[in-house]
Hints:
Layout: E1 14-20, H1 29-36, E2 40-46, H2 56-65, E3 67-68, H3 87-94, E4 97-103, H4 105-112, H5 119-125, E5 134-138, H6 142-145, H7 148-160, E6 164-166, E7 170-173, E8 179-183, H8 187-198
Parallel strand pairs: 1-2, 1-4, 2-3, 4-5, 5-6
Antiparallel strand pairs: 7-8
Amino acid sequence: MTITDSNNYDKDKKNLILGLTGSVATIKAKLLVEQSSIHFNIIVIPTETSLKFLSDQDLDFISSKCKIYKDKDEWENHVDLIKRSALHIDLRNWAHSILISPCSANTLGKIANGLCDNLLSSLIRAWDYKNKPMIIAPAMNTMMWENPFTNKHIETMRSISSNVFIIDPIQKKLFCGDIGMGAMEEVPKIVDFLINNLK
């Protein structure tokens, strides 16, 4: 499979992968795709857990703007595996950069420890940190954000490469009702960060 064969992309735009993970902030994916697709060619990779936060209408809208690849697509035509390349490698080669937004505590812990048990984390494990930016926008409960492991994982990602950027969460009333730090940064500010740092 060649990614560019099945999609029409604007050659004047940079290619951006948007990774969605199991955080309630995934409900903002539609808005994030809507605003970022003006400036970038987008491919979306949702984890299985992230899909629980997206309605059929959300997925229909996102699909109208860009291609979505799910975990099952990694093993499409598995009988012919030897004759084709791996999807996570194809995606890495296509992309100029990747945005993980929202990045849940679980996914942050996985990637900071080199684990790769789904399409998104396999792509991240195979990422070209020397040449391709990675932007991480964490989103989680305040106590999860303040957990010592979270700080360790954030510092690990920052230490990997100068091409890793963290968009710190903000303080607000969270989905669970708590008020504190941990909410994903507002979508317009994330898109502004992409424009200012990737274009």
